[in-house]
Specification:
The complex is a heterotrimer of chains A (567), B (280) and C (317). Chain A has 567 residues and is an alpha/beta fold. Helices cover 38% and strands 24% of the residues of chain A. Classes of the chains: A alpha/beta (567), B mainly alpha (280), C mainly alpha (317).
């Protein structure tokens, strides 16, 4: 069935009707997709958006006729260019894979074979399927590397995957998918693992290459703002069903389904009036330097945290923001400088701190799944710090546990004797917050507490934290890469880059122009729920680029001229 | 209480057929071992006939090289060999897990030192090490148990440390450390409950290994000393019969084999289930 | 980078060898009493005890005893047997060849067969063949070596009379075919034991590799099953498989002890067991050292091979 009739531009390429996908588990079967309809036209980019477990990755792979182990199609049809691929054997499907439909995985670092050079892997399908000669395939790959704006496109293919950075690897994987000029590309969260500034580059490159070859694409992501830049139409998925499928602009301006409206509203957190100004300083980080082995990871970091206020530590991965938290908690001893608690120098290692000092500073970490011992019940999790720090036992302890549960809006009757492994992600994170608050701390460190959660759940957690801070007047250090979150909750902002503080001050000052260049880059790289945002941003950056950088300017202009409408 | 009593049955119901057969065989061995004096028709070291009597209605499996009842000795053998193997395995786990958990929780230099010393002991083959120690100390049951337990504990250490390492990196252990909890609490409340399933499987495997090892030592004449009945030694004592086409000496060997296969069947199911749960 | 890693590993190998040799020579000090008295028994006269102490070098301080011993070993002098006074070097020389021959025959049969079968069980995992192989290998690794040995003797030597039931090669001038004939049955026993281990471990390593995301990616690129295995999976499975083979070769060298005793095969293992029974300490120490050296060197080789096979090491950033 490998025929390449170039079809009518705009004709239907993928037509999915009533698709049901089920997975076999220990307890029987679960339904992953429950009656999904979806169409993709030639040259069209369709976004699939939803929370984890919504079935969007399964649907993306289904467009190739592929299911993971233990998963199968039980009803419905998937027509690819007129052929129902649910009825094909894998041998027949394979003729299309890599040639007419290609896949771009979430983690390029794991999806490239560590044993072979990039170029060999990029050209593998084209050469094996006799679509081009080895020589032509290599030329084509280098051409694509150049289009994807990879550095040294002639030579980067000679590298092994571990020798290339994550963002570059992700672009190399897009190039690999494009070598045979497929009719359809499946992108499975291709930028989720990347920093915002890197994400922009990959998004721009993907958009350019897809438009240049007029390739249809299915773009799977959980980030509505990202998909708004890429897709002509967006399908919103929830619980294995498509709840709304509409043109991007229409979906953003007049969403119909309540769930879509919630998603659109997710970054909009009502801001409570600011904390009391001039409150007492509880924590001072003073000229802290730190190293991992010989590598310097913190360079002269200083800032203050006041009672009842929130300081946001902002930066990309490797900026040293989590390392700062490790120094404050005593997990990493600074090589120079000190941390003062209420003007008293803290011992460098947590091992040398008194029980009461340990109590005063509590940490809530990023992954609620690993922050709770899966074998402990909610009661055990919360009563341990009460007993350990305050010697509470019996009824007194139980009263306090129930009070804490009510504070985090979880019903004591229902949850008291649940194992922590039986809770949902959001409930786990609430429990972690309650465990920290059980110690009655003066300082609460929140390390990326929302980044492992779905957007709507994350919003609830943020609102809870805001409410609790109002009640308890606890000082918070909020570590995040998400500037929307900062906008919602921070009083002070500390922007970090490669272990140094780039800019610090009250949020009104840092988030208002004139910006420090790096803060500007960070702020402008956060995707907005506006389909024109990426084009406008690239235009602005191109205009600003120094004259010498002609290549980048022409690239961006070329991109802009092609526009975003389906051709 | 009812729940606790029902637990073995629920486990049995969850097993596949090979595992269920394995569990049943293990149970039979345990019963034979516990009630050996009641089940055996003659005494353990009692000479009741002449050398190598054939199978008769009195001596169901005949007699051995000095005229003791074969069946009785097979039954008593269950008791001796299994008991020694279990004691040695438990000792090995106590030592290995203590060091393994300590190394994982404290980490740093403590971990490096313990692990290096352990590597050194593992660089000498187990059997060779054991033979050397037996030369120096002479062979007795106590020496045998201690030697095997200590040598096995190096293997247990490796597994326990690796398992604990997986748990130690989890944030909840960091939380416990930051709360100010001590080594004991972290090892018994945070790590142990999360390593019980793989450690149980490992216990089964190690038991088999120890059991085979003791049998091999006895077979070589360096393990459990006569007149105590031991399956390995019984094979050695009566091996000449095989040359005459008599399978009697294979019976104690078969008894060893059936037990280890049975334990392995249960462990295999256990491991399969544990890995299956991870995939879902 | 690669060279540095290999040198580093070699350095650790040498350190381990030294540590092991110290452990072996000084182990006698672990005994709470006097080893000479212990070896000779209660009836020994003070004179004989004193002379044995002298022969074992027990009168020297620890470090002096170790270096005297090391110096002698490096010059090929392993001391004399307590039992018959013959030089240990001669005793070992007569037997090491036999043991290595036996282990090599077993390895030559076991490795290719079990690697191929392991690969097949991984490819057709959870199929009928895999399940059958699983039960078979599980049983094989659960059986005592002497049980397998006697089973083979019972059926192949006694009932079918294909092979001789004992392998007492005494005459060193024996022809190769006769030597093979006498070695085949013990080699077969060892093969069964080791092959089961290699098969299971090969299966696990390959299945681990097959679960990697890059294998799914290769399938989605349209690579045929054969290409997925040979091009994408195998190069990444080489390192673990080499480790499996080395581990089992090392096991083979030790596993010969029991098999040699069953078949009365005149190798190192039998010498060792006899000497332990006689508590002939110098011979035990020398054979233990020899076994440990072979074991350590094999593990060293495996580590180096898997380093060479790792692209991260071969092509640093």
């Amino acid at each position: 069935m490998r025929r390449r009739d170039q079809g009518q531009p705009g004709s239907v390429l993928i037509d999915i009707k009533g698709l049901v996908v089920k997975a076999a588990t220990e307890e029987g079967t679960t339904t992953i997709l429950n009656g999904v309809d979806l169409t993709v036209h030639r040259g069209e980019v369709v976004g699939l958006i939803g929370e984890s477990g919504a079935g969007k990755s399964t649907l993306g792979l289904a467009c190739m006729g592929f299911t993971r182990g233990g998963v199968r199609f039980t009803a419905g049809s998937i027509h690819f260019d007129g052929v129902d691929i649910t009825r094909l054997q894998e041998k027949e499907l394979r003729e299309n894979w890599g040639t007419r439909v290609a896949y771009v995985a979430q983690s390029a670092a794991a999806a490239f074979n560590p044993a072979w050079r990039l170029l060999l892997q990029t050209t593998e399908t084209a050469v094996d399927q006799h679509i081009m000669t080895r020589f032509d395939a290599r030329a084509k790959a280098v051409d694509l590397y150049r289009t994807m704006r990879l550095p040294a496109p002639e030579r980067i293919g000679e590298r092994f995957p571990h020798q290339v950075s994550g963002g570059q690897l992700q672009r190399a994987m897009v190039a690999m998918g494009m070598v045979c000029q497929p009719d359809l590309l499946i992108f499975d969260e291709p930028t989720t693992a990347l920093d915002v500034t890197t994400q922009i580059e990959v998004l721009a490159a993907i958009r350019e290459v897809v438009q240049r070859y007029n390739t249809a694409a299915v773009y799977v992501t959980h980030d509505l703002a990202v998909v708004a830049q890429m897709a002509h139409r967006i399908a919103v998925m929830r619980h294995g069903q498509v709840v709304e499928f509409a043109d991007t602009r229409k979906l953003l301006s007049s969403p119909e389904h309540p769930y879509t409206r919630e998603l659109l509203n997710v970054t909009n957190i009502p801001r409570e009036p600011g904390g009391e100004t001039g409150a007492e300083v509880v924590l001072t980080i003073k000229n802290v330097n730190a190293q991992y082995g010989a590598q310097k990871v913190l360079d002269d970091v200083s800032f203050n945290v006041r009672r009842g206020e929130t300081v946001a530590l902002v930066g990309e991965s490797g900026s040293g923001k989590s390392t700062t938290a490790r120094v404050i908690t005593g997990l990493l001893a600074p090589t120079d400088g000190e941390v003062l608690f209420k003007a008293l120098a803290l011992p460098a290692s947590y091992r040398n701190r008194t029980r009461d000092l340990l109590r005063q500073i509590q940490l809530v970490s990023q992954m609620p799944d690993t922050a709770l011992n899966p074998r402990h019940t909610v009661r055990q999790v919360l009563s341990r710090p009460l007993k350990f720090y305050f010697g509470m036992t019996g009824a007194k302890c139980l009263d306090r546990v129930e009070e804490l549960l009510r504070m985090i809006e979880m019903d004591p009757e229902t949850f008291l004797d649940r194992r922590s492994s039986e809770l949902s992600g959001g409930q786990k994170q609430r429990l972690c917050i309650a465990r920290a608050l059980a110690a009655n701390p003066s300082v609460l460190i929140c390390d990326e507490v929302t980044s492992a959660l779905d957007r709507l759940v994350a919003k609830e957690i943020l609102q809870l934290l805001l409410k609790l801070q109002q009640q308890l007047k606890v000082a918070m250090i909020f570590i995040t890469h998400d500037l929307e979150v900062v906008r919602a909750i921070a009083h002070d902002v500390v922007v970090m880059k490669t272990g140094r503080v780039v800019e610090a001050g009250p949020i009104e000052k840092v988030f208002a122009p004139p910006h420090d260049p790096y803060t500007e880059l960070l702020l402008s790289s956060v995707p907005q729920m506006d389909p024109d945002w990426l084009s406008e941003l690239l235009g602005r950056r191109a205009a600003k680029a120094p004259d010498g950088d002609v290549a980048q300017r022409s690239n961006v202009y070329a991109l802009l001229q092609r526009g975003t409408s389906p051709s | 209480m009812k729940k606790i009593l029902a637990a073995p049955f629920r486990l049995l119901a969850a097993m596949d057929w090979p595992a269920r057969i394995g569990a049943l065989i293990v149970l039979i061995y345990v019963i034979v071992a516990v009630f050996a004096p009641l089940l055996a028709p003659f005494g353990e070291a009692e000479v009741v006939g002449s050398q190598y009597d054939p199978w008769t209605s009195v001596h169901l499996l005949g007699t051995d090289n000095i005229g003791r009842d074969m069946l009785s000795r097979v039954i008593y053998g269950a008791r001796n060999t299994i008991a020694i193997a279990i004691i040695a395995t438990i000792l090995a786990f106590l030592v290995g897990c203590s060091f393994g958990f300590t190394a994982a929780v404290i980490g740093g230099k403590v971990d490096v030192v313990i692990s290096r010393v352990n590597d050194l002991f593992m660089a000498i083959p187990l059997l060779i090490f054991a033979l050397m120690l037996l030369t120096v100390f002479g062979s007795s049951i106590a020496v045998l148990i201690i030697i095997i337990a200590l040598l096995e504990s190096t293997r247990v250490y490796r597994v326990a440390r690796a398992l604990a390492m997986n748990v130690v990196v989890a944030d909840f252990v960091e939380q416990a450390k930051l709360r100010g909890e001590g080594l004991w609490w972290i090892a018994t409340r945070e790590i142990l409950p999360n390593t019980i399933p793989p450690l149980t499987a490992e216990f089964g495997l190690r038991f088999c290994f120890v059991f085979l090892f003791i049998s091999a030592m006895s077979f070589l004449g360096l393990g459990i000393q006569p007149p105590t009945a031991d399956w390995g030694a019984m094979v050695r004592d009566n091996a000449t019969l095989i040359g005459f086409g008599d399978i009697t000496p294979l019976i104690p060997a078969g008894a060893i084999a059936v037990l280890t296969v049975a334990v392995n069947l249960v462990v295999d199911w256990f491991l399969h289930r544990a890995s299956g749960l991870k995939e879902v | 980078m690669l060279l540095r890693l290999i040198l580093m590993r070699l350095f650790w190998g040498v350190v381990t060898l030294f540590a092991v040799s110290i452990l072996i020579t000084l182990m006698v000090n672990l005994l709470p009493g006097d080893i000479a008295q212990e070896l000779l028994g209660q009836s020994a006269t003070p004179d004989t005890v004193a002379s044995l102490r002298n022969q074992l070098g027990l009168n020297l301080p620890l470090h002096e005893r170790y270096f005297t011993w090391l110096w002698a070993v490096l010059h090929g002098d392993l001391g004399k047997s307590l039992a018959n006074g013959r030089p240990i070097a001669d005793l070992l020389a007569a037997r090491i060849g036999n043991t290595l021959f036996l282990a090599s025959v077993a390895a030559v049969i076991a490795i290719p067969v079990s690697l191929a079968l392991g690969l097949l069980t991984a490819l057709y995992r959870n199929g009928a063949f895999d399940r059958l192989a699983n039960i078979a290998t599980l049983s094989a690794i659960s059986l005592p070596e002497f049980f397998i040995a006697y089973l083979l003797i019972f059926f192949l030597a006694v009932k079918l009379e294909i092979f001789p039931s004992i392998s007492n090669i005494v005459d060193p001038a024996i022809s190769l075919s006769e030597r093979l004939d006498k070695t085949l049955l013990p080699a077969l026993t060892l093969t069964l034991v080791v092959a089961a281990h290699i098969m299971r471990m090969t299966r696990t390593s390959i299945i681990n590799v097959l679960a990697s995301p890059y294998i799914e990616m290769a399938r989605l690129k349209g690579a045929s099953p054969r290409k997925v295995i040979t091009f994408h999976a195998l190069p990444n499975a080489v390192a673990p498989i080499v480790n499996v083979v080395a581990l089992n070769l090392a096991y083979l060298v030790v596993g010969v002890v029991v098999v040699e005793v069953v078949f009365v095969y005149p190798g190192m293992g039998q010498l060792l067991v006899d000497s332990v029974a006689k508590r002939d300490l110098p011979v035990v120490q020398a054979s233990a050292l020899l076994f440990a050296v072979i074991y350590i060197v094999l593990n060293l080789l495996a580590d180096i091979v898997s380093m060479v096979g790792n692209p991260r090491v071969l092509h640093p950033r």
